[in-house]
Amino acid sequence: MAKGVAPVKVLVVDDDKAICEYMETFLTRDGFEVKTLSDPETAPEEVKNGGYHLVVLDLMMPGMDGVEALERIRKVDSDVAVVIFTGYPSLETAVQSMKLDAVDYLKKPFNPDEFREVLDRVMRKKGLLRSPEENLHRVIGETIRGLRKERGLTLKQMARRTGLSVSLLSQIERAESSASISSLYKVAIALDVRIQDLFGEY
Question: I need a surface site. Which of 66, 122, 146, 152 has the fewest CB within 10 A?
Answer without folding.
Answer: 152
